[in-house]
Amino acid sequence: MASFVAQTAPPSATVRFDKPTLFDVPISNNGGRCRFVIYKKNIERLVAVESPKVLGGLKSEAYLALNPQGLMPLLALPDGTSLPESQVIAAYLADKYRDEGASFDLPTPELRAADMLVQRIHDQYVAPIQGAMYKEMEIAQRAKAIERLAFQLDVLNRLVKGPFVAGDHLGLADAALFPTLAFCRFILPQYFGWEDLFVQRQQLGQYWAAIEADPAGAKVISEIEGGLQQWKDSGRWEERGIVEQVAQKEYRWSY
C-alpha cells in the first residue's frame, strides 16, 4: 500500500509513494490493460493499485497535480514521476519488470509490428468511440459511432492471428484489446441487439477464448464485468436514454 502525505493535498504539497502506484478502478478497460500486465507478471507485491478517491477523485487538486488531464489510469512512481496513458504505463511495466513473471516480448520484427498495429487501431479508432455504448449522446451520433465500432471490430478480426494477437506469444496488444472486448461483449448484445459479438468474427472469438482461459485475463474480465453489472443494476442505459434511442428502428444498431 502506498503511503500518502495527504489524501486531498493541494498541488504544492508533496505526495509520496512507497512503491509504484496505479490509480485505477476495476471497471476501467484502459486500466485493465495495465492490471493485466501486473497480474501476468505477478508483481502485485511491487506495484500498488489504488482508486483515485484516495486523493479526492479525478478532479481533485492532488490528482490533477499528478495528471493535469484528470484521467485514469495513472502510474505514480516513488521518485515523483507520473506516467499517464495506458499504453505508456503497460509498456513501462513490461519493461521495468522484464525479469518478473510472463514476458510480453515478441521474437521477431514482424510480430512486433503486428502487435503495435493492433494497439494503434485500438487506441486511435476504437477507444475514442467506445463511449457510444454507454455515454449520453445524440441519437444520430450514437448510431454512427456504433457503425464505426462494428467496422473496427471487423478490421481487428482480420488482424488477430490467434490464439493471441500476434500468434503464440502474448504481446502488449493483448493487454489493450481484450478489456475493451469485455465492454463490447457485455453491452452490445444486451442493449443494442447484437446476436453475438463473435458469430461473424471467429478470429476474435478464438482470441477471446484464449484470454478467458488465462487466469490473469479471467481476473480482469471479472473485474470489468462486475463493474458493468453494477451499471446495469443502477439503470445506467435507461437513465441515459440509450434504451429509448435503440428502440428507434430508423437507425441500425446491430451488426
UniProtKB/TrEMBL annotation:
InterPro entries: Glutathione-S-Trfase_C-like, Glutathione-S-Trfase_C_sf, Glutathione_S-Trfase, Glutathione_S-Trfase_N, GST_Omega/HSP26, Thioredoxin-like_sf. Gene3D superfamilies: 1.20.1050.10, Glutaredoxin (3.40.30.10). Residues 18-101 form the GST N-terminal domain. Residues 107-234 form the GST C-terminal domain. Pfam families: GST_C_2, GST_N_3. This is Glutathione S-transferase.
